[in-house]
Amino acid sequence: MTLLQQLYQQMVAAMGVARLEIPTTAVKFYRHEDEIPAAVLANKPTTITLTSCQAAKQASLGDAVLLTLDNIGCVAAAISLGLVDQNQDTPLCGSRVYTDLMLGQARQPKTFAPPTPQDFTKGLVYASRAADRPEFNLFGPEDSGRYQSVETAERAILDMMAIQPAVMKGVFLYALDFDEIEIVPDVVVCSVRPVELTRLIQAYQYLTGQRVNASIGALRVVNSDLIVRPYLTQAINVSTYCLGARLIAHYEADRLGIGMPFHIFEMMAHGMEASQTGYPFQLYPGAVER
Predict the structure, then answer these.
(1) What's the chain's average pLDDT?
(2) Closest CA to 81 of 187, 223, 281
(3) Three-state secondary structure call for residue 23
(4) pLDDT of 234 above 70
(5) Strand 237-239 relative to strand 187-192: parallel, antiparallel, unpaired?
(6) Dihedrals φ, ψ of 231, to 5°?
(7) Which residue from 6, 116, 141, 167 puts its CA 20 to 30 A from 87's CA?
(8) How far is CA 240 from CA 129, 132, 195, 233, 288, in A?
(9) pLDDT in tens, 65-123
(10) Are 244 and 53 contacting, i.e. CB atoms less than 8 angstroms apart?
């Protein structure tokens, strides 16, 4: 049993609810100079692209995914995860899940040119109506865009944490049952109901007394809010799932995300066990799913 599995089991057992499952994804970053283990490389899709939210959801269900610049399906996630330069002025080659949605809406698909990373960084993609770039619409000619103006989009993007310059060659997302090799993840992301989030925060505060400050955005939630922000700040972050997570990866309506560095996940598992008699989770309304 891996350390990740041990900690997860310790955490869930301390909640005192039979058959409770918390979808959990572990994330490991590989920089350009790192050697990616063969057992990790074996999980790189070669015929499809996946958004980071799809990959995280898939991994939590037991299907590990290695994301690289070749197979990531979302340009914005490639920027956040440090796989591509945010100012690159040429599109990523090949079909990509997110930009294919634009292609499906394009009035002249034969002339459609997918947006470049720079188009995302400048806010043109997210403020497609204000920027007069209807080819970047996701929902037809009446699409308002994600922000009311390019300036608003730029302001929002400045707060979307990203690993830049682009120093990563691979991001591995895997589940608890991945035991081909022992990997200590950089970040752990749990998909929780509000009642479970309550108990996780209580376990963390039991040991530290520290409050958790949530930085929540409308877009790039899985890659930026739940993976990159905890990785760069070495702190917990909590966020709702975003447009792509809800519509493309189909995250459930009653779920939120909490991402944390691995050392905090380890602390939280111990805190859960140590505080279980002071926070009787099994008595919380809704703790036991009907």
Answers:
(1) 95
(2) 223
(3) coil
(4) yes
(5) unpaired
(6) -65, -45
(7) 141
(8) 25, 29, 14, 19, 22
(9) 999 999 999 999 999 999 999 999 999 999 899 988 887 776 666 678 899 999 999 99
(10) yes
Which 3-state string (H, E, C) describes 130-194? CCCCHHHCCCCCCCCCCCCCHHHHHHHHHCCCCCCCCCEEEEEEECCCCCCCCCCCCEEEEEECH
The pLDDT value given to residue 106:
65
| 22-81 residue pLDDT tens | 999 999 999 999 999 999 999 999 889 999 999 999 999 999 999 999 999 999 999 999
Asked whether the beta carbons of 78 and 98 are under 8 A apart, the reply is: no
pLDDT digits (tens, 9 = 90+) for 239-268: 999 999 999 999 999 999 999 999 999 999
- Look up residue 98 and give its two tokens: 């997110």
pLDDT-above-90 percentage for the chain: 91
Angstrom distance (rounded) from CA 51 to CA 227: 13
Token digits of residue 136: 């970047």
Between the alpha carbon of residue 197 and those of residues 15, 191, 256, the distances in Å are 12, 9, 8
Residues listed for the chain? 290
